[in-house]
Specification:
This protein is α+β, with helices and mostly antiparallel strands and about 170 residues long. The protein is built from 6 helices and 9 strands; from the N terminus they run ααββββαβααβββαβ. The chain has a single domain, classed as Electron Transport, Fmn-binding Protein, Chain A (Pnp Oxidase, Chain A). The strands form 2 sheets. It has a 7-stranded antiparallel sheet. It has a two-stranded antiparallel ribbon with strand order 6-7. The protein binds flavin mononucleotide. The site of flavin mononucleotide has 19 residues, from strand 2, strand 4, helix 3 and helix 4.
């Protein structure tokens, strides 16, 4: 269990502030987007990845239909352009995989595919979701991040697999 969140955590935490991909498969659509906020750790005795997705994201709509998501982490790989496209354009308007030249590959244990372009993979089953309570957000943070009330939904995913692709 510890392996699933600790083994590659250094590579994840190094890349996270620069951006990683969260990919989700809904009823008949798959989408990916860039995230830079998140955590890895333990909840209810399970290894978890926790992601923050704003209501306005198409990825939020897809995650509502999904049972799981994958976190795709470039490790010493130059995918800056793909992170930029996935982080500035919406899957509502374009096929990001095509535009960013990203390749989907079946995951080991979950329905959502992984991105073959990234070495490090986390496969996560959605365990819990939580909306933010606006009254509890400090005023300066609210003014800076949520002037339009577009708060984040926190998605807790149980990590059922984590691995480097070449392994
Ligand atoms: C480096 C970077 C990090 C980002 N981190 C997040 C994040 O943690 N949560 C979030 O909701 N949006 C984040 N975004 C913004 C989304 O990736 C962006 O709005 C994206 O176009 C949404 O795509 P979608 O509509 O297909 O879901 C980030 C963007 C960039 C460039």
């Amino acid at each position: 269990m510890i392996d699933r969140y600790q083994k590659h955590s250094e590579a994840l935490l190094k890349q996270l502030p620069k951006g990683v991909f969260i990919t989700a498969k809904g009823n008949d659509v798959t989408n990916t987007m860039t995230i830079a906020w998140g955590h890895i750790g333990v909840l209810w005795g399970k290894p978890v990845f926790i992601a923050y997705v704003r209501y306005s994201r198409y990825t939020y709509d897809v995650l509502l239909q999904a049972e799981d998501f994958t976190i795709n982490v470039p490790v010493e790989q130059d995918v800056r352009e793909a992170l930029k496209i996935a982080g500035t354009e919406s899957g509502r308007d374009i096929d990001k995989f095509k535009k960013a030249n990203l390749t989907l590959k079946p995951a080991r244990q979950v329905n959502t595919p992984i991105l073959a372009d990234c070495k490090l993979q986390y496969e996560c089953k959605i365990l819990y979701r939580q909306s933010m309570e606006p009254a509890l957000i400090p005023d300066d943070i609210k003014a800076r991040y949520y002037p339009n009330h577009d708060t984040h939904i926190v998605f807790y995913g149980e990590i059922v697999e984590s691995y480097m692709l070449e392994e």
